[in-house]
Structure formats: structure tokens, C-alpha cells
Design a protein that fits this description.
Shape: elongated
Distance between the termini: 47 Å
CATH architecture of the largest domain: Orthogonal Bundle
Order of helices and strands: HHHHHHH
Largest sheet: none
CATH class of the largest domain: Mainly Alpha
Low-confidence stretches: 28-32
Number of domains: 2
CATH topology of the largest domain: Arc Repressor Mutant, subunit A
Strand content: under 5%
Structural class: mainly alpha
Number of strands: 0
CATH superfamily of the largest domain: Winged helix-like DNA-binding domain superfamily/Winged helix DNA-binding domain
Helix content: 55-70%
Number of helices: 7
Length: 133
């Protein structure tokens, strides 16, 4: 029972923003058992990663040079961003107030310029080339 109480205290402490763990139950960390220790360690690492990723600034700078080299138009870039956000051709068309065929045309030209065969490949290449975050 002491171990369950320790786990609850660790979870509460982490959710309240504590960065270090002090065992309020008096149960030594060596005595709580391997399973509990692994669980506590995982919880602490998970919360630290969440804190670090939330506090780290996320900056993205478009590689305009690469965009110009590939001849990618602003509209094609916009469509690539929407594809990366998981939108379908129909959803992109509705968002941009164009027909679905227009989206398909832009996508097809974009895929040719990136030498991509699939949407996922185009997104991956776009990220690698600094076209999308």
C-alpha cells in the first residue's frame, strides 16, 4: 500500500510543477521495488520532456532559396502545409475556396518538383528541405 501512496504522491508532485521528488511516505527509494522505481522514473522523465518541449521556443524559417531553386509557388507551398496538417484534397479546396481539381493540379505539380510519389513523401521532403516546419 505504501508503494501505491508513493506513486500517487509522485504524480501529484509532478502535476503541481515540482522538478524533484521528495518521498512524503518515508518509504526509501531502494525499498519501493523495481516496478515502482521504473514507473516513477518513467513518470519523471515524461513530465520533464513535456516541460522542456513546452518551454523551448519553436522557430521555423522558410528556406526561400530552396523554394526558388525548386520553383515552388506560394500556393503550392500553402497546399504542402495543409497536406502536412493532415487535410484531404476536399478539405484543402474548401479552406482555400478553390475546386478539388485545382488542389489536385497544384499537388501534382508540387510532387513533381519535389520528386515525391505520395503525400507523406512530399511532407517528409518538405521538412527536410526547410519548406515546412
Amino acid at each position: 500500500m505504501n508503494h501505491i501512496r508513493t506513486m500517487r504522491c509522485v504524480t501529484r508532485d509532478l502535476q503541481n510543477g515540482r522538478r524533484s521528488f521528495i518521498d512524503p511516505t518515508g518509504c526509501s527509494l531502494q525499498g519501493i521495488g523495481r516496478t515502482c522505481w521504473c514507473w516513477i522514473t518513467d513518470k519523471i522523465q515524461h513530465h520533464r520532456r513535456n516541460i522542456e518541449s513546452a518551454s523551448a521556443p519553436q522557430f521555423f524559417t522558410l528556406s526561400e532559396k530552396r523554394q526558388a531553386e525548386l520553383g515552388i509557388t506560394p500556393r503550392e507551398l500553402e497546399i504542402l502545409e495543409l497536406i502536412a496538417n493532415g487535410l484531404s484534397n476536399r478539405e484543402i479546396a474548401e479552406k482555400l475556396f478553390v475546386s478539388e481539381n485545382t488542389v489536385k493540379t497544384h499537388s501534382s505539380r508540387l510532387f513533381d518538383k519535389l520528386s515525391a510519389r505520395r503525400r507523406t513523401q512530399a511532407v517528409q521532403l518538405g521538412k527536410e528541405l526547410g519548406l515546412i516546419p
